[in-house]
Structure formats: C-alpha cells, structure tokens
Amino acid sequence: MDWWTIFYWGWWISWAPFVGTFMARISRGRTIRNVFLYKWSMPFVYTILWFGTFGGAAIRMHRRAGFVSDMGFQLHQDADFYPHTSSDFRPAGARKCYSVPESLSHPDYLDVPGGC
Length: 116
Prior knowledge:
By secondary structure, the chain is mainly alpha-helical. The chain has helices spanning about 5-25, 30-75, 90-100, 100-105, 105-110. It has a domain at about 30-85 and about 95-115.
C-alpha cells in the first residue's frame, strides 16, 4: 500500500462529518425514500454508466496499445517509402516556410554581413 492510499482514507474520514451535516441540512423535509433514491441510488447508477463507458474505452485502448506501437515502428521503418517524408519531394521554398528557426537564422533574413 502506498502513502496516497492512507492519505485518501484520511481525507474521506476527515470530511465525512461535514458531508453528513450537509446532506442532513439539504434533506430536511424529505422522506427517507427520496433521500435514498436521489443521494445514493442515482449517483451509483450514474457512476456505473460513466465507468462502464469510459472504463471500457480505456481497456480497449490499452489492449490496442501493443498493436499501435508495432504499427508506429513499422511506419518508422518504411518512412523512405512515403514521398512526403523525403526532403527532395518538397518544393524549394517550402523548406523555408516549414523550418521557421532555421529560416530566421538564414543570412538573407538577418541582413547581417557574413551570415550568422
């Protein structure tokens, strides 16, 4: 068990009286059935739906992570096959547009005799 688990437990134990007092104050005049339904059951159902949706998506992403990393490795190996990755495919002026730091240090842009 890590330190954050104890901290988390302590946090909830320390705030439990305040949460209980708050719930008691806003529940005044309501029946026990209403309090149970709207303060315990509905959040539970919402939590189940939320974690069921996003937890399932996260599990699917985690399972696909091995496939994606293999795919990235394969694309990196085949980078010379794709024309947009080679520098001779781009027009001459496009290199200056895409490489801003390099173009700013170019002697034509700085107007400094002798270059940088």
